[in-house]
Amino acid sequence: MEYPSQINETMQRVAMAIERHTDQVLQERIGIGVAQFKILQLLHEWPHMRQARMAERLGQTEASVSRQIKLLTRKGLLTSSVDTKNRREHIHTLTPIGTKMTIAAGDVMQQALQSFFADLGDKQQKQLLELLTSVQNNVR
Asked: Which of 51, 33, 30, 31 is nearest to 42 (CA)?
């Protein structure tokens, strides 16, 4: 049966198309990319997160997260401080501007994503979500 291979390929293409589109929209409207948005979103949900934990949660290297953090810090969207328990670790926190930017970017992402699923009715969107959730649970 070749369906799993075709499903995998299709899911990768869809994910890449969504990522490219949302990255472009975020860059144009908010001035940040998806990689930066993911970091802001993590910090919005879990304030004061360490860089190593962020990299782990995002499935990225600490170096790539560090680059994005430096850019976000220069933009005034987050602050960094040394962890008092482990001086080699840094703890990052959203600034008030960073919080507003995260919320605005989330709204922009939601609007951008709606265009991908506009042709699907509510029932189809719910079924798709259930199927993808099932696949995700099997991957863990």
From this structure: 51
Residue 95 identity (one-letter amino acid): T
The CATH architecture one would assign to domain 3-139 is: Orthogonal Bundle (1.10)
Domain range summary for the chain, segments of one domain joined by +:
3-139
Which residues are CB-contacts of 39 (< 8 A; sequence separation ≥ 6)? 54, 58, 65, 68, 69, 72, 78
Three-class SS string for 49-115? EEHHHHHHHHCCCHHHHHHHHHHHHHCCCEEEEECCCCCCCEEEEECHHHHHHHHHHHHHHHHHHHC
Give the pLDDT confidence of 83-92 residue by residue, as tens digits: 788 777 788 8
Instruction: Retrieve residue 97's tokens.
Output: 């501007």
Of the candidates 113, 116, 119, 99, the one whose C-alpha atom is nearest the C-alpha of residue 25 is 113
Q: Which pTM does this prediction carry?
A: 0.83
